[in-house]
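Hey, why these numbers?
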Amino acid sequence: MQPVFVVVEPSRQLVDDRLVHARRQHPSDTGLTHYLIRLLWRMCTAAIIAGGEARRLGGRPKGALAFGATSVIERQLAVLRSITETVFVVANDPGPYADLGVPIITDEIPGTGALGGVYTALVHATADPVLVVACDMPFIHAAFLRHLVESMGSADVAIPKTLAGYEPLCACYARRCAPRLRQQIDDRVLKVQDLLPHVRVHKVGPDEIAPHDPHGVLFSNVNTPEDYARALERLDAHRSGPVAPGRDRKV
């Protein structure tokens, strides 16, 4: 009889523990540390939340807006695919995103806004952490998102907090947060931030964000035609110097 070999994928907690051990016991072994960090990135799930109705944009899907040589959501997909192979889109209307080459998942509970999109992402994710990004954030980039994934550790949520407030639609969530989000949906408490007092939170503060966001545009989002025009101006100015900072999102 031939032997049977079974490959067991390491758990997130196991990799976290090994990373802590490597940094403590083998601080000079940068190769081992780098390998474990890359393994953490690859183990995560990424979800783009594209379920908004975009009324202030005349109903045009935000993610499908042209941005440079591509669309906003195609730009985001390129960033997320550089981190993990497991990427999907949560959208009320799959039509505008059908040709992206990734799974399109409709909301588990329609009409529950951004919180419903995050809940759907956690329910359908195959691995922790679940990196959630809103489809209207054209300036996200891989270096910051990798830092966000790496910083989560054993927390339930890793979330940026700027001087303007939290960024719940550019954050990492553990799938175990799903029951609490479902309870909020049942209670019609639909602000994502209302989850935070009930879970273990790692806040990624301004000092950690600053090296990744020298122009203050990382969390800029597109809600109105004016926001879109401003984002295109920032895209043109991005390489040449400081640009106007973005605005906080209240969800």
